Amino acid sequence: MVNSIDDLIQYFKLNLSHKNLDQIQKLLDNSNNKSSDDIKDFLLWAKNTKNIKVVSQDIPSHILKESILHDIKVECRGPDDKIYDSNAEIRARIARGNTILEINNNGTKNYKLIIYALRKFTGGLGDEDDIDRKSGEWKNYFLKDYSSVTSVISLQKENGEAAHLSCVWKDNEFAICAGSKNVHIIFKNKEDLLNYSEQRYSYAKLIGLAVLRHLEKLKPDLRTLFLSFLVQFNLTVIFEILNPETQHVEDLSYLKEPLLKFITFTSNTIEFKPQSLCSMTPDCALELGNLFELSCVKMEFVDKNGIENHLLNIRKDHGYEGVVLYFLDSENNVIGLLKKKTTWYIILRAIREKLRHHISPKNTETISDLENRIKKRLTEIKKWIGFDDEDYERWLKTSVEFINWFDKKYHENLISKDDFQNKFPVLWTRYLNETNSTDKIKINISKSVLTDTHIDEISRELKSVAI
Predict the structure, then answer these.
(1) Is the pLDDT of residue 107 over 90?
(2) Angle at 393 between CA 368 and CA 134, to 5 degrees
(3) pLDDT tops 80 at residue 442
(4) What tens digit of pLDDT does each residue of 132-162 get?
(5) In degrees rounded to 5, what are phi and psi of residue 171?
(6) What does the pLDDT read at residue 132?
(7) What is the 3 state secondary structure string of the chain?
(8) Which of 91, 125, 339, 409 would bridge with 415, disulfide CB 3.0–4.6 Å?
């Protein structure tokens, strides 16, 4: 049975810190669903708007009778940044995960926004995986002027894939909605996942299995509290899923199965001029995540006067992707999000992408050509970030040695294309071990010659604001 709001409030009073209880009450006040007609209008707008695609699927009748799930996304060739960058309306309305549940109740169609994830946010030079950004573009993704910022919280960015969770209470039981950025499914148990056999559902099913594994580990009362919280407060849970079978840059070989890393909550409420990008502050969200025994990302409070040092330290760090900065106003609204990635990640990803081109069937270039492409890219990265010549030479030496090691083993059929596509970090670690090499290259970035304009912009903006 779903817990009542009073039961949930009582539970939070007993288990949450006092400073976060006010946010729960504020969340409750703002959790009222938009009318079914409002959600229907949003769906119609999406269907009739250029560069927006709606994919509709019938839900198997034994899961939910006479129901349809509508996934909404930006559609374009290549990265979707160009659409978000140029269209303020799409930035405001389309999150990175939008799903509407349509239910036919005795001839009357009802519409519910069941997934409404984080809105698009960005980074600076080197902080985007698919494009190179211009100075200042990140400000377009803030809800308010930077002068409204009163505090900053840094969350570690996991190197996986976006994953979402929500649920509804229907026919006296919970129906779970989970999925990746653009594809979601409805289910109640593991057997229900078998109904989604098409290839497009593969990652959504993987996420669904990870959700069910977590729910099975919870004590029954806590499981009911968690799902009831999502239903009564009308929330989407934002995760990153780490999958040891599809690794990107960080080595996930320590995992035996996919792991959901909890980040935050968002409200399933359409606000075309939202006050906040999240349902609550990151520290409140992570306290709730710990209550529900979720595996949470790392968090750090950032002092305004230390923002430049914090960002520089991230650039110099090793072994992980980076961080996302959450910018808060005086009312605890998250008014902006910003990526900042480690140099280690930026360089390894650049190597991976150059190798991807090198082993493609259409490639006619030699290994010498690849070395030149790597050298050119590292020169660009050095210019963005501002590390010194010695760092550049060490990274160039390591990169060139790796691609030659890889090329030799690849053409000897000791490394497969699947190894490269899904286990690049494992290959990188193997190379380091076999050649007794290291990628723990100390990065030296002098503030006096700081060329990372993104860091410089942020630190100047924050110093001009009285936090």
Answers:
(1) no
(2) 85
(3) yes
(4) 555 567 788 899 988 899 999 999 999 999 9
(5) 55, 40
(6) 53
(7) CCCCHHHHHHHHHHHCCHHHHHHHHHHHHCCCCCCHHHHHHHHHHHHCCCCEEEEEEECCCCCCCCEEEEEEEECCCCCCHHHHHHCHHHHHHCECCEEEEEEEECCEEEEEEEEECCECCECCCCCCCCCCCCCCHHHHHCCCCHHHCCEEEEEEECCCEEEEEEEEEECCEEEEEEECCCCEEEECCHHHHHHCCCHHHHHHHHHHHHHHHHHHHCCHHHHHHHHHHHHHCCEEEEEEEECCCCECCCCCCCCCCCEEEEEEEEECCCCCCCCCCCCCCHHHHHHHHHHCCCEECCEEEECHHHHHHHHHHHHHCCCCCEEEEEEECCCCCEEEEEEEECHHHHHHHHHHHHHHHHCCCCCCCCHHHHHHHHHHHHHHHHHHHCECHHHHHHHHHHHHHHHHHHHHHHHCCCCCHHHHHHHHHHHHHHHHHHHCCCCCCCCCECHHHCCCHHHHHHHHHHHCCCC
(8) 409
Query: Which pLDDT value is given to residue 466?
Result: 47
Amino acid of residue 467:
I
* Alpha carbon distance 118, 110 (integer Å): 24
Report which residue type is found at 293. E
Instruction: For residue 182, give the nearest of 268, 68, 91, 71 by alpha carbon.
Output: 71
Residue 201: CB partners within 8 Å, gap ≥ 6?
183, 185
Q: How far apart are CA 404 and CA 413, in angstroms?
A: 14
Q: How far apart are CA 52 and CA 218, in angstroms?
A: 38
> Is 267 within 8 Å of 235 (Cβ atoms)?
yes
Contact 200, 138 (CB under 8 A): no
114, HSE (Cβ side, Cα atoms, 13 Å): 29
8 A C-beta contact, residue 250 and residue 94: no
Per-residue pLDDT tens over the stretch 217-247: 999 999 999 999 999 999 999 999 999 999 9
The rounded distance, in Å, linking the Cα atoms of 443 and 456 is: 17
Domain ranges of the chain: 5-116+160-296, 344-435
- Which pLDDT belongs to residue 435? 97
Sheet of 322-328: strands edge to edge? Answer: 299-302, 151-157, 322-328, 334-341
Are 217 and 202 within 8 A, CB to CB?
no
- Is residue 402 within 8 Å of 356, Cβ to Cβ? no
